[in-house]
């Protein structure tokens, strides 16, 4: 038998089964090259065997055991609706590949949107991509449910008692899971409200329970349809939220002086005890399981902030102002490559010359994601434990399974515990005026930049950093809000506020990423300028109500803006790097939102020191 020529076309040498098996191990880039190599390869891959090739787990990510069709995409909810109207398995492969490629780029393409909710700065918010609304509380009190696509307030609870006796206190912490919202009230109690009750309109919630505690509650966390509540007086509470009313299943005796941060897995709840580290307990039995003490960690890395400030959202918004912007609640800016700045993770401790914090190292926000646990401290240290169950065994196991990342910090952004988000082998946290997004390897371990790990990057917390304010808002007249609440007209002026900011890494696919705002009437011409003949044309003073317009207006006002600032109205931005496409949130994988563990849950902070996250 004559051996085949090394240059022979595999399609003419091997049976289709062997070729398909080879292609199963070939990267997507190789498929693209082969389809362009010849008509025969194009026919083989994109016509005859397209279904078999692109349904392979090596080509498209899909839930385990799903049917060999695209029906599972009905649950793939994202802010940008990236996976809607996916036409084929090849189309899905393209979208997933472009998304993954953008995430691994050292300087990825991104788009930003900013949503101002009324005139009060946002304190906490949670996105619901299935129902496409945001649930948020504010500094001034009240709770709002806001349409994700139009920015319209669908429903709200007031800050002062209404005719039903309902109100939401200022600085209320809230937790959310699939139509259930929990927020704290005065008197060491939490309220539980549920959407989709009876004939309730979309976005309307109805109260189903008030859970009272005879001790000072400091925080609570909702996931796995379980609510965990913590007191600084040595008590913890675990509720089954599938029951009506919710049922207390475990009353835990825990370490005293819990600071309010907690997170849970299906079977374990972990509390932050400040300088003492993180204490773990079994949710069913209440048994103490051990301590994660970051001071026992010996593997160290550090990150220095980027040397030059990035134009970030400022440049994007200024550009939008020059070319005009649609009159929408929060039109996305143009895709940019300079919003997310690459950072280097360097092996070894932070140089002594960069240390700014000399006080005790308090541990605040902590989050779980599978086997991964991450904690954040006032000194700017991030504790990364790749297998927290093993680390609980003893000090040696903790050292073998954990690392510390040190960042330059003076502790000022930790006033209420800092904030943190953890999901899909990535961490996101805020230090000083920057957000850091750090990629781990597939085993959730820290790697220095020299090891060529996935890309890590940073962005500014403020959408207008040159003005030293978080986000620029426009004092609005808010007539006829849901609930019959009327707001009188206020003098029109610009003010600093906290808003919901979405940073999306979704690939720019025509007709897909722009769809999130497609249902909003536009009052612009094809070139982006306001159309004077449009029936939807806003009043002249409303043209400045977009972030882009505000930037342009401020460039005209110059230094006069300083006279308009309110000292008591915000020090930090609420940043939702929560695009489902951006792989963040308390849900699943890269199709969902931005997750967070913020300041001490349930704590009533002083308005003089607000600190926040999305």
Automatic annotation (TrEMBL):
<feature type="compositionally biased region" description="Polar residues">
    <location>
        <begin position="513"/>
        <end position="526"/>
    </location>
</feature>
<dbReference type="InterPro" id="IPR011047">
    <property type="entry name" value="Quinoprotein_ADH-like_sf"/>
</dbReference>
<feature type="compositionally biased region" description="Acidic residues">
    <location>
        <begin position="580"/>
        <end position="602"/>
    </location>
</feature>
<feature type="region of interest" description="Disordered">
    <location>
        <begin position="508"/>
        <end position="540"/>
    </location>
</feature>
<dbReference type="InterPro" id="IPR036047">
    <property type="entry name" value="F-box-like_dom_sf"/>
</dbReference>
<feature type="region of interest" description="Disordered">
    <location>
        <begin position="574"/>
        <end position="614"/>
    </location>
</feature>
<protein>
    <recommendedName>
        <fullName>F-box domain-containing protein</fullName>
    </recommendedName>
</protein>
């Amino acid at each position: 038998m004559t051996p085949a020529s090394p240059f022979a076309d595999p399609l003419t040498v091997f049976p289709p089964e062997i070729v398909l098996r080879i292609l199963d191990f070939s990267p997507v880039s190789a498929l693209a090259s082969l389809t362009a190599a010849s008509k025969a390869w194009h026919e083989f891959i994109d016509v005859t065997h397209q279904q078999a090739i692109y349904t392979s787990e090596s080509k498209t990510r899909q839930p385990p055991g799903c049917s060999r069709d695209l029906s599972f995409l009905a649950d793939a909810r994202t802010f940008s609706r990236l996976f809607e109207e996916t036409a084929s398995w090849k189309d899905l492969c393209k979208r997933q590949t472009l998304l993954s490629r953008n995430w691994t780029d050292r300087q990825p393409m991104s788009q930003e949107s900013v949503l101002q909710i009324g005139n009060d700065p946002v304190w906490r918010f949670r996105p619901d991509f299935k129902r496409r609304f945001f649930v948020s509380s504010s500094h001034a009190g009240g709770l709002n449910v806001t349409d994700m696509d139009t920015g319209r307030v669908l429903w709200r609870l007031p800050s002062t008692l209404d005719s039903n006796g309902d109100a939401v206190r200022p600085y209320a912490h809230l937790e959310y899971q699939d139509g259930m919202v929990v927020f704290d009230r005065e008197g060491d109690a939490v309220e539980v409200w549920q959407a989709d009750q009876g004939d309730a309109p979309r976005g309307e919630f109805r109260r189903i329970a008030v859970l009272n505690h005879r001790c000072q509650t400091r925080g609570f966390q909702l996931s796995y349809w379980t609510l965990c509540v913590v007191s600084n007086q040595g008590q913890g509470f675990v509720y089954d939220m599938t029951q009506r009313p919710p049922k207390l299943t475990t009353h835990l005796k825990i370490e005293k002086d819990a600071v309010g941060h907690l997170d849970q897995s299906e079977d374990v709840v972990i509390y932050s005890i400040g300088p003492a580290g993180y204490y773990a307990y079994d949710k069913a039995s209440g048994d103490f399981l051990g301590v994660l003490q970051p001071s026992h960690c010996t593997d160290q890395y550090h990150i220095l902030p980027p040397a030059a400030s990035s134009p970030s959202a400022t440049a994007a918004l200024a550009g939008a102002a020059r070319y005009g912007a649609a009159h929408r609640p929060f039109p996305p800016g143009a895709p940019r490559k300079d919003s997310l700045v690459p950072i280097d993770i360097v092996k070894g401790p932070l140089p002594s010359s960069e240390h700014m914090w000399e006080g005790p190292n308090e541990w605040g926000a902590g989050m779980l994601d599978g086997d991964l646990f991450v904690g954040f401290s006032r000194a700017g240290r991030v504790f990364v434990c790749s297998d927290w169950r093993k680390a609980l065994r003893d000090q040696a196991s903790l050292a073998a399974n954990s690392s510390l990342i040190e960042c330059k910090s003076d502790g000022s952004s930790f006033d209420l515990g800092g904030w943190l988000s953890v999901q899909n082998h990535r961490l996101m946290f805020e230090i000083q005026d920057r957000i850091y997004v750090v990629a781990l390897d597939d085993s959730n371990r820290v790697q220095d930049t020299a090891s060529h790990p996935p890309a890590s990057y940073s962005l500014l917390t403020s959408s207008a950093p040159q003005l030293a304010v978080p986000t620029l808002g426009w004092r609005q007249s808010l007539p006829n809000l849901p609930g019959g609440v009327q707001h009188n007209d206020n003098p029109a002026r610009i003010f600093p506020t906290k808003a919901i900011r979405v940073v999306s890494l979704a690939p720019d696919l025509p007709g897909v990423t722009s769809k999130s705002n497609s249902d909003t009437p536009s009052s612009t011409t094809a070139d982006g300028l306001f159309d004077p003949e449009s029936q939807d044309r806003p009043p002249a003073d409303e043209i400045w109500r977009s972030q882009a317009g505000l930037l342009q207006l401020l460039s005209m006002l110059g230094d006069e803006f300083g006279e308009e600032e309110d000292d008591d109205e915000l020090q930090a931005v609420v940043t939702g790097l929560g695009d489902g496409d951006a792989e963040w949130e308390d849900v699943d994988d890269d199709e969902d939102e931005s997750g967070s563990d913020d300041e001490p849950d349930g704590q009533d902070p002083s308005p003089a020191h607000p600190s926040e996250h999305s």
